[in-house]
Automatic annotation (TrEMBL):
Pfam families assigned to the protein according to its UniProt record, in alphabetical order: DJ-1_PfpI (PF01965), HTH_18 (PF12833)
Alphabetical list of Gene3D superfamilies matching this protein: 3.40.50.880, Homeodomain-like
One GO MF term: DNA-binding transcription factor activity
Keyword Hydrolase included in the entry's annotation: no
Name of the protein in question: Transcriptional regulator FtrA
Residue ranges constituting the HTH araC/xylS-type domain according to the UniProt record: 226-324
InterPro entries: Class_I_gatase-like, DJ-1/PfpI, Homeodomain-like_sf, HTH_AraC, INH-QAR
Gene symbol of the encoding locus: ftrA
Cleavable signal peptide: none
PROSITE patterns for the chain: HTH_ARAC_FAMILY_2 (PS01124)
Keyword Transit peptide: no
Keywords, in A-Z order: Transcription, Transcription regulation
Organism domain of life: Bacteria
Length: 331
């Protein structure tokens, strides 16, 4: 029995309602990410989210950059929220108000999905909802998070971490990645990809990807990985090894592996698995091909191998995934 039906006092959850919690000294960028993804009503979304903002401080609150934000001050907005977003917390040494922590615990019991961006994880940590769970934050704050909350299993190098209905993201840009991951959960890979194109950001960076890439600055075209990545995406149905790809582009395997990790934050093998799984998601959503055919088109070789990686990555089977998003499209 779900939390929403297990108690007469429980409030019925609105799965499309997203509430961002704000406060003085608000991180403008992280709040803006929530607004852009969940509050703008982009046409790429089959069904718009119902976006609300609630403040724990008297309004208007003052955000970074001299911006003022108007919001409701009624924390009861969280009671029926399907998703709650916590932007970076203003002071790591300041405990969030108890009434906010109580409201978060109540919302979580009611089935809400809770996201923290950057140092917003300190709000979740103070509520106790992360005790015994994995979480991440900006790499500059991981030691402090571990010091204050040793009961949390801090993942120091990941972009974002999903622990059932609680999700934590690293630094500011990772808020975009986690938000698009949520859209992907709600509407599928095709919709998330279209929204990413609208936002002019990569369609998918997996949570296990490293936070920090050593050489983030753009390189001259002759050194860019884009040609290699585009070629691989166009030939996912073929078998690839580091050696075969390196030979095709007249590189040594060591050079290819080094550049892959430096520029994408992950290994060639993991990148290929991610892209193949993403392609399988798209085909499951948009075609009537059987799983065996999709496995072949995506380079998995067999439906068994596709099922294994699909379940390991997404926690569900290809058939269940297809049924879910076919139902979403017609519902």
């Amino acid at each position: 029995m779900s939390p929403a039906t297990s108690s007469k006092r429980a409030t019925k959850l609105n799965p499309r309602k997203v509430v961002a919690v704000v406060y003085n000294q608000l991180c403008t960028f992280e709040y803006a990410v929530a607004v852009e993804v969940f509050g703008t009503g982009r046409k790429e979304l089959p069904k718009p989210y119902l976006f609300k903002t609630v403040s724990i401080d008297p309004v208007p609150i003052k955000a970074q950059g001299g911006i003022q934000v108007q919001a409701s001050t009624n924390l009861r907005q969280l009671n029926d929220a399907g998703t709650i977003v916590l932007p970076g917390w203003r002071d790591l040494s300041e405990k969030p108000p108890q009434r906010l922590l109580n409201a978060l615990v109540k919302a979580h019991k009611n089935g809400a999905r809770i996201l923290s961006f950057c140092s917003g994880v300190f709000v979740l940590a103070a509520s106790g909802l992360l005790d015994g769970k994995k979480a991440t934050t900006h790499w500059r704050y991981t030691e402090e998070l571990t010091r204050q909350y040793p009961q949390i299993l801090v993942e120091r190098d990941l972009l974002y971490v999903k622990e059932q209905s609680i999700m934590t993201a690293a630094g500011s840009a990772a808020a975009i990645d986690l938000s698009l991951f949520v859209v992907r959960q709600d509407f599928g890979a095709e919709v998330a990809n279209a929204l990413a194109r609208r936002m002019v950001v990569p369609p998918h960076r997996e949570g296990g990807q490293a936070q920090f890439i050593a050489s983030p600055m753009a390189k001259p075209a002759k050194d860019s990985m884009s040609e290699i990545l585009d070629w691989l995406r166009s030939n996912l149905d073929q078998e690839h090894t580091v050696e075969s790809v390196a030979k095709h582009f007249h590189l040594s395997p060591r050079t290819l592996s080094r550049r892959f990790i430096k520029e994408t934050g992950t290994s060639p093998h993991r990148w290929l698995l991610r892209e193949r799984t993403f392609r399988a998601q798209q085909l499951l959503e948009t075609s009537d091909h059987d799983v065996e055919h999709i496995a072949s088109q995506c380079g998995f070789g067999s439906s068994q191998l596709l099922r294994f990686h699909f379940r390991r990555t997404l926690g569900t089977s290809p058939r269940a995934y297809r049924n879910t998003f076919r139902a979403s499209a017609t519902g």
